[in-house]
């Protein structure tokens, strides 16, 4: 199927591109699935399990991706906060140097 792209208008060309990208994604997924099947068949043929060859998968952390509530707020800019973890932000250090107490900046 040959498509003469010189005769396509802007909308038709965009539609063709989006269809091609969808098809490309489908083909990639099919190829990955076939490759996984080949790898698993080879592993089984040798008498091993996936975990024997690649090691057991580590369970996902329950805390991964969670955010910590703010503990301190910048008195000069209410939008700036700090959880109290990690390196102190500049505004926090500058406020301490200016004489503000940590307890005064608590949320």
Automatic annotation (TrEMBL):
Q: Which GO terms describe its molecular function?
A: bent DNA binding; DNA-binding transcription repressor activity; minor groove of adenine-thymine-rich DNA binding; transcription cis-regulatory region binding
Compartment(s) where it occurs, according to its Swiss-Prot or TrEMBL record: Cytoplasm, Nucleoid
Q: Where is the DNA-binding protein H-NS-like C-terminal domain?
A: 60-107
Please, which domain of life does this record's source organism belong to? Answer: Bacteria
An example Pfam family from this entry, by short name, is Histone_HNS
InterPro entries, sorted: H-NS_C_dom (IPR027444), H-NS_C_dom_sf (IPR037150)
Record's SUPFAM superfamilies?
A: H-NS histone-like proteins
Kindly list the GO CC terms recorded for this protein: cytosol; nucleoid; protein-DNA complex
- Assigned keywords, A-Z: Cytoplasm, DNA-binding
Q: What is its main location?
A: cytoplasm
Q: Tell whether DNA-binding is among the UniProt keywords.
A: yes
* Similarity annotation: Belongs to the histone-like protein H-NS family.
Q: What is this protein called?
A: Histidine biosynthesis protein
């Amino acid at each position: 199927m040959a498509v003469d792209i010189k005769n396509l208008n802007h909308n038709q060309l965009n539609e063709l591109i989006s269809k091609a990208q969808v098809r490309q994604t489908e083909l990639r997924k099919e190829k990955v699935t076939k490759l996984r099947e080949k790898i698993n068949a080879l592993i089984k043929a040798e008498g091993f399990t996936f975990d024997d060859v690649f090691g057991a998968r580590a369970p996902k952390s329950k805390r991964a991706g969670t955010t910590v509530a703010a503990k301190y707020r910048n008195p000069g800019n209410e939008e700036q906060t700090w959880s109290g973890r990690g390196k102190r932000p500049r505004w926090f250090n500058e406020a301490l140097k200016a004489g503000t107490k940590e307890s005064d900046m608590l949320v």
